[in-house]
Specification:
Blueprint (H helix, E strand, L loop, with lengths): L10 E8 L3 H12 L2 E5 L3 E5 L5 E6 L13 E8 L3 H13 L6 E4 L3 E7 L5 E7 L7 E2 L2 E2 L4 E2 L2 H7 L13 E8 L4 H10 L3 E6 L3 E5 L7 E4 L15 E9 L2 H13 L3 E5 L2 E5 L5 E6 L1
Helix pairs in contact: 2-3
């Protein structure tokens, strides 16, 4: 499973979101999701599963505003559990603590639960089916949304207690609202080097490196031409793409310049911005 989230692939490492109340959000992500705190200051917390790797950071800006409606930005970030047994123990944890979810789906390539944090930031918790079972038609992988077989997953995890996110947990992918698909696809393919691996009608695209089912999802479900969110509103601040080598990093920087993408350098690192305003931090893994 982890091969899709390591070299020689480019993948999502950490997601950084803004929230309205850091203490409320921290309680949610620790107690509901099962993260551990890696670092914490008054208005920021960095969260981990294994005690070493940052997967999610939550920040409360001084002048934070509520999450905007029907803007570009975060649709959800997706937490990838090591196996089906872990997903079952997470479901049992939700049942025992009467936590609510927004949905559950079998995507053929994966099995997933959907929920939101206290500010409405979307979250997916999922596990992959074996990649040998994925059905590829040429360059595209078959994905759909069917009812999740909860009882089957629970039976596989019977007797496994939920003790928070297991150490093998990864940030599996990120799914973004964008203003339109053509220019966005150009940025993510010709600029960042991802391949389109699934098209969902004319409203969504899924892209990956190394024939994963997707590291990046893009959709126009908030409307074609959706505006960018306000500065410091609740939602996505940026996410990190981990690039496998210095050589590939330099190639991607050159490709981004070729598609006239904005490239920024500051004390936090090197960033680019997609055509819909989603900020991406680029680093070498």
């Amino acid at each position: 499973m982890t091969g899709f989230h390591e070299a020689p692939n480019t993948f999502v490492g950490e997601v950084v979101i803004t929230v309205a109340d850091i203490d409320r959000s921290l309680a949610f992500y620790q107690e509901f999701i099962g993260f551990k705190v890696l670092k914490k200051s008054e208005k920021k917390a960095t969260l981990t599963a294994d005690g070493m790797t940052a997967l999610l950071s939550i920040e409360q800006p001084e002048d934070v505003s509520p999450k905007g409606r029907r803007t570009t930005g975060l649709y959800h970030f997706a937490i990838l559990l090591p196996d089906r047994r872990n997903l079952g123990s997470f479901i049992q944890h939700l049942i025992q603590n009467k936590h609510s979810i927004q949905g559950a789906s079998d995507h053929l390539v994966s099995e997933a639960l959907y929920m939101a944090d206290p500010d409405g930031n979307g979250i997916e918790v999922y596990t992959d089916r074996p990649s040998s079972s994925w059905n590829w038609q040429g360059q595209e992988v078959e994905m759909t949304s069917e009812a999740l077989d909860i009882q089957s997953i629970l039976s596989e995890s019977e007797g496994t207690e939920w003790n928070g996110l297991p150490s093998g947990t990864r940030m599996g992918h990120i799914h973004l609202h964008v203003a339109e698909l053509a220019e966005s696809a150009n940025f993510y393919t010709k600029g960042l080097g991802f391949d389109i691996v699934n098209r969902y009608g004319g409203q969504a695209l899924f892209l990956s490196s190394g024939k994963y089912h997707h590291h990046i999802g893009l959709n126009t479900w908030n409307g074609v031409g959706a505006p960018k969110p306000e500065n410091n509103s609740v939602g996505l601040k940026h996410f990190t793409l981990v690039i496998p080598s210095e050589e590939m990093f330099e190639k991607i920087i050159s490709q981004l310049k070729d598609v006239s993408a904005e490239i920024l350098k500051n004390d936090e690192g090197i960033f680019t911005i997609d055509p819909s305003g989603n900020r991406i931090k680029l680093l070498v893994g």
